[in-house]
Design a protein that fits this description.
Shape: globular
Oligomer: single chain
Strand content: 25-35%
Low-confidence stretches: none
Number of strands: 9
Helix content: under 10%
Distance between the termini: 34 Å
Order of helices and strands: EEEEEEEEE
Length: 123
């Protein structure tokens, strides 16, 4: 089990969940508590009004309580972390200021899931 991740740790493939589109998969075993390098240092988000974002891109945004969307600043350069699918039984946890951490041991080939509620998205 590795205790570090980098840009060689993940791959995009069709999701294992119905209607999940693309998902993020581990390329090697990852130990519980490992920080996940899913975003580059120069990744930025931006708040948009729903009507500003084409419907096809809204799935890559997080709904905000005020009805706006938190989205990648540039949709033509999204990081692999933007492709994480939601699960209430996620294998990742989000920590403010730290990013995503492995909630448990993750096996090579396993799809990574985030609980969007940890990001403030309404039910």
């Amino acid at each position: 089990m590795k205790t570090i991740t980098d840009h060689f740790s993940f791959v995009l493939k069709p999701s294992t969940i119905q209607s999940g589109g693309v998902g993020v998969f581990a390329l090697h075993d990852i130990a519980e508590g490992t920080p996940m390098v899913l975003f580059t240092d120069d990744f930025h988000e931006r708040r948009y009004e729903v009507e500003e974002v084409p419907k096809e891109l809204q799935a890559y945004c997080i709904d905000q309580p005020d009805g706006s969307l938190m989205c990648p600043e540039h949709f033509n350069c999204m990081d692999i972390g933007n492709y994480l699918n939601h699960s209430q039984k996620s294998n990742l946890r989000y920590e403010e200021g730290k990013g995503y951490i492995a909630r448990r041991d993750i096996r090579a080939g396993e799809e990574l899931f985030a609980d969007y509620r940890e990001l403030g998205e309404p039910e």
